Amino acid sequence: MNEAVLSVEGLKVVFETKYGRANAINDISFSLRKGEKLGLVGESGSGKSVTSKAIMRLLASPPARVEGRILLDGEDLMQKSEKEMCKYRGNHISMIFQEPMVSLNPLFTIGDQLSEVIRTHKKASRKETEAEMLEILRVVGIPSPKARLKQYPFELSGGMRQRVMIAMALLCQPRVLIADEPTTALDVTIQAQILDLLNKLNREMGTAIVLITHDLGVIAEMADTVAVMYAGSIVEKAPVRDIFFRPLHPYTEGLLRSIPTMDEKEGELDTIEGSVPSLYNLPAGCAFYNRCPYASPECAAEEPPVLTVDSRSVKCWKYAGVGQKEVL
User: Fold this and answer.
1) Residue 170 has what DSSP assignment?
2) CA-to-CA distance for 246 and 244, rounded, in angstroms?
3) Does 1 have pLDDT greater than 70?
4) How many CB atoms lie within 10 A of CB 269?
5) Quick check: helix, strand or coil at residue 16?
6) Would strands 37-41 and 4-17 be described as parallel, antiparallel, or unpaired?
7) pLDDT band for position 148 (cuts 50, 70, 90)
8) What is the pLDDT of residue 325?
9) pLDDT in tens, 29-58
10) Is residue 262's pLDDT more than 80?
């Protein structure tokens, strides 16, 4: 079995604000092997994007306080200085951010922005730099790449801008790629093209991918393993097929029930009753307690441990009698 290229161990993120302390990420752990695709799913506000920015060391301190270990090929990124992290970002680990129009600088051409990545991480002549930029644009399927280098972001479509973001992230062939909602605001045809591209790059380059999305359809198509997040915690982690055909956690069940199906008759969609608890005042027990159809007094009194059930991870008192407590 391949060793993990990325290991997140006991990650906690707290924001100190004028309104109080917000517990954004609550002691999560997961690992990723070479070529593996991990999907992070959950409602908006569950902690997916904060997790990605914590891994990339992009959270400003203050107000953020980050604890835990983030191991990239055995090197703890939490121990690296900001200067050292600049060498890791874009080189060993890259990220595709949401909203490509906002992420790309509107004042610089595509060529300027791509060449900056090469200048930061490599020693290359102007001719070599242009050759690398043209090649990566061809890899991500951008037509007339030489002409695109002279264009500005506003001159490209949403799908083309997203391809440029992917090209920028892959220029240095990183070991790990984090894709945060890579198909947001794209029409379904372009979404399919972007997902096909990520799958192709994963196969051909062996890049491990962390895919962050709230779209379970995307997860079904892309991920090998799925981690379901709720209120800053990973409540279930399992192979993608198990998640869809035999979910263990009540929250995962609720997410799957809320997906509309082709054979569904007219009527209201299933929803998860109640609301997500405030991160400023998380309950003492299970954060899903007030919305769970299986809740017991034990759930309200104490936070459930992470249990192993049939080689899967689940954070729920429902399985206390059949699961084995994980030692993280």
Assistant:
1) H
2) 6
3) no
4) 9
5) strand
6) unpaired
7) very high
8) 66
9) 999 999 999 999 998 889 999 999 999 999
10) no
Apex CA 40: angle with CA 303 and CA 199, to 5°? 160
Say how far apart CA 296 and CA 265 lie, in whole Å.
Answer: 33
Q: Which of 227, 269, 222 is nearest to 249 (CA)?
A: 227
What 8-state DSSP symbol labels residue 268? P
Helical H runs in the chain?
A: 48-55, 82-88, 100-103, 110-121, 126-139, 145-148, 158-170, 188-205, 216-222, 240-245, 250-257, 297-301
Residue 312, token pair as written in the block: 């899967």
Coil, strand, or helix at residue 213? coil
Distance CA 306, CA 318 (A): 11
User: What is the distance between the alpha carbons of residues 196 and 77, in angstroms, rounded to a whole number?
Assistant: 30
- Inter-residue contact 221 to 195 (CB < 8 Å): yes
- Residue-wise pLDDT for 278-308, tens only, equals 999 898 899 999 999 999 989 999 999 999 9
State which amino acid sits at residue 20. G
Main-chain phi, psi angles of 174, to 5 degrees: -70, 155
The packing angle between helices 188-205 and 158-170, to 10°, is: 10
Pure H helices in 4-123:
48-55, 82-88, 100-103, 110-121
Burial of 324 (0-12, 13-18, 19+ CB in 10 A): exposed
Structure tokens at 212: 């962050």
pLDDT for position 288: 95
SS3 189: helix
Give residues with Cβ within 8 angstroms of 122, minimum separation 6. Answer: 172
Please name the amino acid found at residue 47. G
pLDDT, residue 244, reads 94
- Judged by DSSP in three states, 173 sits in coil
Backbone angles phi, psi at 185, to 5 degrees: 65, 15
- The gap from C-alpha 131 to its chain's centroid, in whole angstroms, comes to 31
Please give the backbone phi and psi of residue 72, each rounded to the nearest 5 degrees, phi first: -115, 110
Kindly report the pTM of this predicted structure. Answer: 0.89
Percentage above 90 pLDDT, the chain: 60
Q: What is the pLDDT of residue 193?
A: 83
